[in-house]
């Protein structure tokens, strides 16, 4: 599971040897090989990894999405400083080398690896310096995670390093809050942090039944609208099927350490709720991640409607019942709240490009993530088609019922979803294009940075969005 609204504030020149593929081989006249050769001579030790090296192979195997491991870059770069990122970008742009950038590597579409070209893995840029401020942590008081960023250090398309904040480069500061792969490579976030105190957190798991689960959804909506802000408690629901077992999982996280009542009268199968630290709560949550699987996501946003959410789960059952033969298949419908309280707190902490669309209806909202997992590449087409059917049905039905919100959460979207065209209104999209023109007038990052969501070029191109890192021209 992945929780948008639970803020967690943490933002080798391996020379060619017997264990690595030499650079002087057939194909070394391509831009990718040329860039790897130049970088091998200019970066410090332990910063560049070639196919066949232990670090290259290790990084390849640590992607959340197994489809990303199918892609094989000419080399992988692990910069340890912003200056090394800048040097790498200058080299890549000088020689017109395609590249991708990996930060956490945890996304639902192929966007942080590349077939050919160069990958920048930012895992070594992991320093933390804490300056405590404020009294709380959750979105009820402080809005979304991006609202609490006070400075971005970013490497621009020309290799220069700038700080973007409310005083310096404020236009870029605003745009980076939905930056995608358009404006530069962020090498440091300065974020507001807040003293941590104990939380009440954990999961309660129930069997899914036609009587109890719709009532659970009704009760979740009532809690979200009436009590969540008072208790400062997030509740997210996951309805899914794993190994033929259908389970409803409710995740709780509250600054109020007094336990909340269950959302259903049904007996829980598992109850891990307890008073704990936020760090331990996050650690416990990691066990819910499905690692080393092939994955497909689809996301959308609606007004709160229990019958619709139950219908989405029911439609998922119909679609995935036909795919039960797929090895390792399991699937989930994850539902998270975006309350009016989050949006109000966001308004007080600053601007971001997506807020106008998100707040347009003035309603409490449900952010829905559809996810499916399986084992083998041979089943990709069938599983992609199943998710396409489920996502299209869900959005079409929500639109027909008058409850669809246009917002598409970038971190959950797949490459077929028009994130910028839907999540940013026309005026803000024009403003983002102006920022793009200011900091990358020749669209260097648009041409060379493969992967991620790209700004539409103009109003006639607003459904163009994601540039796959797997495209054949790489």
TrEMBL record:
MF-aspect GO terms: flavin adenine dinucleotide binding; oxidoreductase activity
Superkingdom: Eukaryota
Keyword Signal: yes
Transmembrane segments: none
Signal peptide interval: 1-16
InterPro entries on file: FAD-bd_PCMH-like_sf, FAD-bd_PCMH_sub2, FAD-linked_Oxidoreductase, Oxid_FAD_bind_N
Span of domain FAD linked oxidase N-terminal: 76-132
Keyword Flavoprotein set for record: yes
Entry keywords, A to Z: FAD, Flavoprotein, Oxidoreductase, Signal
PANTHER family in UniProt: BINDING OXIDOREDUCTASE, PUTATIVE (AFU_ORTHOLOGUE AFUA_1G17690)-RELATED, FAD-BINDING PCMH-TYPE DOMAIN-CONTAINING PROTEIN
Membership in a protein family: Belongs to the oxygen-dependent FAD-linked oxidoreductase family.
Protein name: FAD linked oxidase N-terminal domain-containing protein
């Amino acid at each position: 599971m992945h929780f948008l609204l639970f803020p967690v504030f943490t933002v080798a020149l391996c020379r060619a040897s017997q264990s690595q593929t030499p650079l002087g081989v057939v194909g070394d006249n391509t831009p990718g090989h040329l860039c790897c050769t130049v970088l091998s001579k200019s970066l410090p030790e332990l910063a560049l990894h070639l196919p066949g090296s232990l670090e290259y192979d290790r990084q390849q195997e640590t992607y959340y999405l197994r489809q990303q491991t199918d892609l094989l870059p000419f080399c992988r770069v692990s910069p340890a400083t912003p200056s090394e990122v800048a040097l790498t970008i200058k080299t890549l742009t000088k020689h017109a080398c395609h590249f991708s950038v990996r930060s956490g590597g945890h996304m639902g579409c192929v966007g942080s690896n590349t077939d050919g070209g160069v990958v920048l893995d930012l895992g070594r840029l992991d320093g933390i310096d804490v300056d405590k401020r404020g009294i709380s942590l959750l979105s009820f008081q402080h809005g979304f995670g991006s609202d609490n960023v006070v400075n971005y250090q970013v490497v621009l398309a020309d290799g220069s390093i700038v700080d973007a904040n409310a005083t310096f480069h404020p236009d870029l500061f605003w745009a980076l809050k939905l930056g995608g792969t358009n404006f530069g490579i962020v090498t440091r976030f300065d974020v507001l942090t807040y003293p941590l105190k104990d939380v009440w957190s954990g999961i309660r798991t129930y069997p899914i039944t036609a009587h109890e689960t719709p009532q659970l959804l009704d009760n979740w909506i009532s809690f979200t609208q009436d009590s969540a802000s008072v208790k400062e408690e997030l509740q997210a629901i996951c309805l899914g099927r794993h190994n033929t077992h259908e389970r409803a999982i409710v995740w709780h996280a509250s600054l109020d350490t007094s336990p909340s009542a269950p959302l259903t009268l049904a007996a829980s199968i598992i109850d891990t709720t307890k008073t704990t630290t936020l760090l331990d709560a996050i650690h416990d949550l990691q066990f819910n991640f499905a690692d080393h699987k092939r994955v497909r996501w689809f996301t959308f946003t609606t007004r709160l409607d229990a019958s619709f959410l139950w219908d989405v789960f029911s439609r998922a059952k119909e679609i995935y019942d036909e795919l039960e033969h797929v090895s390792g298949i399991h699937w989930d419908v994850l539902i998270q709240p975006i309350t009016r309280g989050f949006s109000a707190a966001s308004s007080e902490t600053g601007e971001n490009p997506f807020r106008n669309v998100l707040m347009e209806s003035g309603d409490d909202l449900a952010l829905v993530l559809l996810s499916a997992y399986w084992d083998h590449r041979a089943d990709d087409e069938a599983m992609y088609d199943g998710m396409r059917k489920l996502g299209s049905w869900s959005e079409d039905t929500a639109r027909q019922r008058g409850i669809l919100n246009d917002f598409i959460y970038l971190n959950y979207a797949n490459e077929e979803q028009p994130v910028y065209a839907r999540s940013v209104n026309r005026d803000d999209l024009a403003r983002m294009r102006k920022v793009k023109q200011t900091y990358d007038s020749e669209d260097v990052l648009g041409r060379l940075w493969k992967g991620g969501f790209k700004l539409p070029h103009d109003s006639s191109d607003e459904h163009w969005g994601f540039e796959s890192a797997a495209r054949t021209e790489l």
